[in-house]
Design a protein that fits this description.
mainly alpha; elongated; Antitoxin_put
Length: about 70
């Protein structure tokens, strides 16, 4: 293995370790970010599904809910 490959492998290892350490030290922060992302994805999906369904009259919904 030449020096360039060795340096590349060392840098890769250091970077992996740094990312892993950051994830563990800032776990709550990353959990919040991922929760926001999942929420946004779910909301986007709900909006898209809503656009593909027929429009329902407000009074019809109210009647069903009160029913």
């Amino acid at each position: 293995m030449n020096i360039a490959n060795l340096d590349q492998e060392l840098m890769k290892s250091v970077l992996k370790e740094s990312v892993k350490e950051s994830l563990f030290e800032n776990r709550a922060f990353f959990e919040d970010i991922f929760a926001e992302i999942l929420h946004d994805v779910a909301l986007t999906e709900a909006i898209e599904q809503g656009r593909q369904t027929p429009v329902v009259d407000y009074e019809d919904v109210r009647t069903i809910l009160e029913g």
